Model the fold of this input.
Amino acid sequence: MSGLGRHMLGLEGLTAQDITLILDTASSLKEINTRSIKKVPTLRGKTVVHFFVEASTRTRTSFEIAAKRLSADTVSLSASTSSLTKGETLIDTAKNLEAMAPDLIVMRHSMSGAPHLLAKHVGPSIINAGDGTHEHPTQGLLDMLTIREHKGRLDGLEVAIIGDVAHSRVARSDIIGLNTMGSRVRVFGPRTLLPPFAESLGARVCRSMHEAVEGADVIIMLRVQRERLDDVLFPSQREYAQRFGLGSRHLALAKPEVIVMHPGPVNRGVELSPEVADGPYAVILDQVANGVAVRMALLYLLIGAEVR
Ligand code: CP
Done:
């Protein structure tokens, strides 16, 4: 029986027990993805709408694959091909989707709080697939699953998050989730891209790349979110790469078995040097693979479990 409720809007408010339930469920469902016939009837008769009002490769594809592997019927709606382009409001769009009786709506939107608005106004379960600069809970969960698989635990780990923390919904979900699970999180980046929320969420703010990576078990690099920048907050990509990009030289300061993560898409040569992105410490494609398992787990826990 799940204590998660009907929606997954963010990691804020989840207990360590809730997160462990999701990660354990994802770990058991992962085996389905290795079969020659990758399909189980768990969500037969359920309908999932993927409503993406912002671009996505990994999240959208993995949600669709996850739903299909559990035998749900899926429908996809993009901003550019929906009647949002004709001026229909978000709530009217959502109410029209609701009239078609889906069981769950997966939503990505550039506005923070958009999935929460949907959850207030329509009946189906809602999963937040990333809302503005607020949260990206399924990315936080797949990051924790990946770390747990490589390190065997989350408790007591030193995790560095480096880059454009201010605009990163991934950073917020990672900090919240990892803190709940007992990891110690530190952040670093250009001062203009380090938000006050990091410290208030319990992360330590570092003053140098050296301080950020020294003794780290896990390094999570973030993309500069150019689409969310109003001003030029750093001088050039070249200077950014020199001062805030992760190269092989930094890895010598971290723990010997450090893992390097990135939510994608990667700006090669900016936040990550190609030799690190393609090197033995990078687990970026493990994160992508775990995205399918985590999304299967959430679909199962929200609309598949017999008793909720
Ligand atoms: N990590 C992530 O959210 O990637 P996409 O934007 O491609 O979905």
About this structure: The mean pLDDT is 94. The beta strands are 47-52, 73-78, 104-109, 125-131, 158-162, 184-188, 204-205, 218-221, 259-261.
